[in-house]
């Protein structure tokens, strides 16, 4: 497949300084009017109530459209390949019952736990060498309370000493852990588990901090404080001293100093922005923002925003945050997160868009690799997409598949992750109805799919939610590199340990 010419598909709005009304560095506590309050959380509530579609967020369509990433070639004897186009679970498979067998290619189920899941799976090894997993159990609180109460609400802690037999050791039910939405994070350097209360429609910004370094099986609450205006997504400085909160529809970007996790304190807050996932450079001085967008001088559509947050990281008095650059692309839907990694010392991002645009042009953002070596001039290198994401497929019969027409479900991406930040050659993505997808990125300009694992459900079969249908793979995957495993959760069916086989396994170094 001919690689897309990045220059034909992206729009970079160059470096932006701190003058001319484009300064992102409003001083702590200074308000600026919110410009665009379209958020995933509001959409979720509206869609549950009335089945509304997404509005068109992208305006920078390029002359060339990226094609689907080459499909995985299944070589394992345990494979159960998809029956339709890449990523599709056709209506016929629900009618015949084939869907109950699941779909897997160069991947096998090692373990399964629970019947629900949310947006994050985190893996952590404590000071004594015990390994645990943490995952949020609820897609939308309080909608799912009645059903999730069967196995327990909140964030689930699992003892993963034997990944073949996950053992639930704790359920965290402090305010933020009851509904962390997309904010659950573990800082590995300090052993702190953090989240901010989020949804419905952002919710108040209560931040919960737990000690997991002492005994990861039994997290210990250190503090629960109203540290931000609103909560939704988050970020963490690698040194574990700053927890960042994105209020998204609430319009706030907040930095919380957690140097003393028992006494967190707000050190920066900006309003009037519409930010989603926040990821940071290894030194904590550069922030890669999933910008949902708005008309604020330098950018009038969604995409990647790069911020200089060095003054916050240095704990300057009255800190300022500066916009470095903005980037958008023709297929943009709702940017979710942009994870940094390096290849041969050069800096890149693994960026994911969530959901799909049903506003008329049928765009699915899916995922992409962005070169940010020059942070003033980021550029898209390649795309990670499935055949079901392509415009031609979305106008056909796949619209009849269960869940395909729901913008909060549908054939679209949600989160991707890499197994390690230095020279990864494989990527794992949760792609909602299409399940867990694995991509070979050994050639950054020509990714190819290398494995997949999908466990859709029939209504009332294998799920505690009677209206659930299909897969709801929304979580950021976690990695057990030594065992060549990926851990993820599906909102309709729970937590999975997936073993990689064949070419997928060979891409992970021990």
From TrEMBL:
Protein name: LVIVD repeat-containing protein
Ranges for region Disordered: 1-31, 62-87
Matches recorded under Gene3D superfamilies: YVTN repeat-like/Quinoprotein amine dehydrogenase
Signal peptide: none
Low complexity: compositionally biased ranges: 1-16, 62-72
InterPro entries: Quino_amine_DH_bsu, WD40/YVTN_repeat-like_dom_sf
Taxonomic lineage: Bacteria, Bacillati, Actinomycetota, Actinomycetes, Propionibacteriales
């Amino acid at each position: 497949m001919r690689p897309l010419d990045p220059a034909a598909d992206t729009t970079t709005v160059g470096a932006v300084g701190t003058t001319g009304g484009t300064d992102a560095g409003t001083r702590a506590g200074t308000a600026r009017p919110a410009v665009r309050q379209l958020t995933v959380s509001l959409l979720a509530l509206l869609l549950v109530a009335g089945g509304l579609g997404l509005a068109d967020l992208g305006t920078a369509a390029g002359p060339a459209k990226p094609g689907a990433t080459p499909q995985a070639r299944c070589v394992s004897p345990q494979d159960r390949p998809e029956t339709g186009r890449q990523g599709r679970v056709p209506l016929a498979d629900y009618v015949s019952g084939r869907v109950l067998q699941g779909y897997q290619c160069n991947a096998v189920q090692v373990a399964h736990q629970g019947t629900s899941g949310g947006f994050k799976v985190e893996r952590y090894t404590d000071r004594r060498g015990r390994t645990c997993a943490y995952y949020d159990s609820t897609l939308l609180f309080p909608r799912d309370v009645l059903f999730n109460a069967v196995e327990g609400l909140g964030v689930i802690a699992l003892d993963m000493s034997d990944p073949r037999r996950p053992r639930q050791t704790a359920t965290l039910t402090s305010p933020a852990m009851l509904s962390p939405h997309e904010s659950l994070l573990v800082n590995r350097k300090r052993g702190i588990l953090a989240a901010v209360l989020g949804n419905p429609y952002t919710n108040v910004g209560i931040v919960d901090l737990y000690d997991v370094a002492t005994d990861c099986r039994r997290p210990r609450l250190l503090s629960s404080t109203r540290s931000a205006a609103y909560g939704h997504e988050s970020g963490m400085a690698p040194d574990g001293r700053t927890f960042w909160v994105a209020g998204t529809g609430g319009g706030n970007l907040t930095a919380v100093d957690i140097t003393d996790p028992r006494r967190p304190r707000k050190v920066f807050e900006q309003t009037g922005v519409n930010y989603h996932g926040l990821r940071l450079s290894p030194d904590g001085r550069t922030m890669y923002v999933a910008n949902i967008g708005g008309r604020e001088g330098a950018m009038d559509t969604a995409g990647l925003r790069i911020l200089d947050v060095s003054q916050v990281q240095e704990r300057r008095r009255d800190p300022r945050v500066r916009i470095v650059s903005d980037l958008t692309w023709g297929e943009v839907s709702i940017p979710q997160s942009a994870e940094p990694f390096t290849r041969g010392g050069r800096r890149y991002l693994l960026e994911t868009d969530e959901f799909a645009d049903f506003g008329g042009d049928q765009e699915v953002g899916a995922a992409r690799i962005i070169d940010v070596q020059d942070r003033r001039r980021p550029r898209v290198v390649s795309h990670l997409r499935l055949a079901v994401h392509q415009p031609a497929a979305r106008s056909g019969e796949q619209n009849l598949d269960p869940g395909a027409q729901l913008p909060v479900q549908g054939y679209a991406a949600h989160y991707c992750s890499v197994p390690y930040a230095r020279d990864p050659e494989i990527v794992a993505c949760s792609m909602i109805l299409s399940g867990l997808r694995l991509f070979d990125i050994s050639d950054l300009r020509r990714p190819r799919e290398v494995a997949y694992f999908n466990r859709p459900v029939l209504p009332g079969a294998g799920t505690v939610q009677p209206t659930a249908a299909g897969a709801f793979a929304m979580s950021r995957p976690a990695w057990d590199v030594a065992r060549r495993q990926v851990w993820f959760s599906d909102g309709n069916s729970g937590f999975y340990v997936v073993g990689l086989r064949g070419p997928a396994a060979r891409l992970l170094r021990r």
